[in-house]
């Protein structure tokens, strides 16, 4: 079988070791790195889409390595240090909890606070996936989501009782978005607020929009 073309479709040199197969975890790491690089302005939307398509179907580590070979080493090392957690749990009694600045958005958040205000500010957040699921079992307090262009919030699967304030409803699944925030579970005796970033005094004087996050 020497010299046979491997399943990747790429010719294999009989004198060289066979290419190493890529796992789902390898593909996920490359996807996360590409999205973070795009958020830092290293890739535009078209380049990101093209590379993500290759990353999701790559069969070998060499194919994945080629997708990030032209990224600055400093950016690659900084991105590699970013850990995207599968689940973050917030469970606090009273007081307040804030996630703001350059925090890494996990794949899922579990909200279990009681009579506690929770703020999730996506203005400068590192977003590495297109959907964030927030599983709620929250009683009392306010949930504030600071969004921006391309970030949509859907409460269709959230059961609310004795809550007040305007909340977003159903979001068109086909609508373009950077991040889709899905609220599910139960929320009682509280309030949900969704707003865009507020401009600083200097931005207001210069008529500049508030700074927005990227992917």
Describe the structure.
By secondary structure, this protein is an alpha/beta fold. The protein folds into 2 domains: 24-80, no CATH class; 87-206, no CATH class. Helix content is 24%, strand content 27%. It is built from 5 helices and 9 strands. The strands form 2 sheets. Strands 1-3-5-8-7 form a 5-stranded parallel β-sheet, with no helix packed on it. A 4-stranded parallel β-sheet has the order 2-4-6-9, with no helix packed on it. Helix 1 (24-39) runs antiparallel to helix 2 and helix 1 (24-39) packs across helix 4. Residues 1-9 and 74-80 have low confidence and may be disordered.
Key words describing this protein structure:
alpha/beta; disordered N terminus; 5-stranded parallel sheet; 5 helices; 4-stranded parallel sheet; 27% strand; 2 domains; 9 strands; 215 residues
